[in-house]
Amino acid sequence: AQTVTQSQPEMSVQEAETVTLSCTYDTSESDYYLFWYKQPPSRQMILVIRQEAYKQQNATENRFSVNFQKAAKSFSLKISDSQLGDAAMYFCAYRSDYGGATNKLIFGTGTLLAVQP
Amino acid sequence: NAGVTQTPKFRVLKTGQSMTLLCAQDMNHEYMYWYRQDPGMGLRLIHYSVGEGTTAKGEVPDGYNVSRLKKQNFLLGLESAAPSQTSVYFCASSYQAGGHLDTQYFGPGTRLTVL
Question: Which residues of A are less than 8 Å from B104 in CB distance?
Fold first, then answer.
């Protein structure tokens, strides 16, 4: 079974600085997708970025980028120029590309990011 | 375009009571999901649906039932609530289950407390 591990329960960053959140996963599959979701205090789950395992190029979305290391099964999220609005719980998630509709999202336990002014 | 909405936002139940959580989406998505979120455990899939009239079990289905009578709605029922079902419940929907249109969009969540 696949697992997702986020080893940093809490992180803190100064406004305008850069922070990296870690995520590792365990799988025997070769085709899958990885996601980072943001959950602010409003509880709304918001997709931040996604990465297809078959793509070697790291995904980027404005100030958010990932470092995808397939061999090491590592998927870290880098937030550049941190803003107060980035403060939230961040979840890493895995989804298999096999099995069609049974492909559920498997979530890590989350990292709570605080942004200091 | 409201996206995914959930009703109610908060609810307190006594052990043994029943209730239904409603999820609605206006994006014409085929796939809908119910998750629960517990402290320190991330989100876990309860049930899901691949289209109108279909439902299937997820990772933690015991104690819950679901129905998808209309494409836009996905109901989660608790027939006899237990304190172990105290949690935050999230509904999500997606256009596809795979490929680049598989992104799941989440509702705002329902905080349920069972006393």
Answer: 47, 105
